[in-house]
Amino acid sequence: MAQDNKISVVINTYNAEKHLREVLDSVKDFDEIVICDMESKDNTLAIAREYGCKIVTFEKKNYTIVEPARNFAVQSATHLWVLVTDADELVTPELRQYLYQYIATPNCPEGLFIPRRNRDMNVLDMGRLRDFQLRFFRRDKVYWPPLIHSIPEIEGKTTKLVDNDKAVFNHLDENYLHDRMEKLNRYSDEELDKRANKQYGLGALIWRPTWRFFKAYVMDQQYKKGLPGLISSYLSGFYQFLIVAKTIEKRKYKTK
Predict the structure, then answer these.
(1) Model pTM?
(2) What are the sequence ranges of the domains in the chain?
(3) Which of 199, 212, 198 is nearest to 241 (CA)?
(4) Is 2 a residue whose pLDDT tops 50?
(5) Torsion angle of alpha carbons 58, 63, 66, 69, nearest 10°?
(6) Beta strands in 53-195 (DSSP E)
(7) Which residues pair with 83 in a beta bridge?
(8) Boundaries of each Glycosyltransferase 2-like domain copy (predicted)?
(9) Separation between Cα atoms, residue 9 and residue 34, nearest integer Å
């Protein structure tokens, strides 16, 4: 394949008008922006047209997660290198510069994990960069499994962006408690398909939530965010509790 030093940005959307203008402003200097929309009912498409985006549609059907649309979205891009960003994530100028330098490097790995700074109760995470997302890759070397929170599968090598703490995604989702609790319940339902053969018991009910809280609060330095960090860490542990409890309920008590 001929050398392609251009980058397509791919954004999956569904009723994403809230942050979309700000997100598109952050990626407007890339070579192409592809909006893969799941039949939005708000002003998402009007905003995308305003910015001159390439728009493709993926039927929403009964999907409640984005992953089934990821492969279609990525393959709708024109250029060899693809950056996937969500409709509530900003791409910093430093990240854009880094990515173009990256693809200009001979024999660079086919996939790149990019750090993301998250926001809880409107407080931005300024601790160590621990949330890495595999979002930059060659279009011809990737497959994205259609399961919730799945990681793209790369044919080739991957690496992490660890040498520039300003080359990041900035997550705009405020994660207010009402919205986050709704997501935890919905996402934990979707996780059940990935754990169909798991045999969880009392130990998992205790140690998985406890470990996730410890990891978030101590290792990921959520304590630096004060009470919002403490609350977010508890919710991370509670999410693991929901997954384990629902898996036990489904297997042992034969619920649907």
Answers:
(1) 0.80
(2) 7-171, 177-252
(3) 212
(4) no
(5) -30
(6) 54-57, 81-84, 89-91, 111-117, 119-120, 123-124, 132-138, 142-143, 153-154, 158-160, 169-171
(7) 9, 136
(8) 8-108
(9) 6
Distance CA 182, CA 5 (A): 41
Helix axes 202-214, 227-252, angle to 10 degrees: 160
Cα–Cα distance measured from residue 130 to residue 20, given in angstroms and rounded to the nearest whole number: 25
Q: Rounded to 5 degrees, what are φ and ψ at 159?
A: -145, 170
Number of helices (H), then strands (E), belonging to the chain: the values are 7, 13
Give the tokens for residue 241.
Answer: 């509790």
Model confidence at 1: pLDDT above 50 = no
Q: What is the pLDDT of residues 69-128, one digit of tens each?
A: 999 999 999 999 999 999 999 999 999 999 999 999 999 999 999 999 887 776 666 666
Task: State how far the Cα of 219 lies from the Cα of 157, in Å rounded to an integer.
Answer: 27
Under 8 Å between Cβ of 143 and 71 = yes
Structure tokens at 60: 């929403």
DSSP per-residue codes, 161-172: --S-TTSSEEE-
Decide if domain 7-171 falls under CATH 3.90.550.10: yes
Alpha-carbon torsion (122, 127, 130, 133), positive or negative: positive
Question: How far does CA 78 lie from the centroid of its chain?
Answer: 22
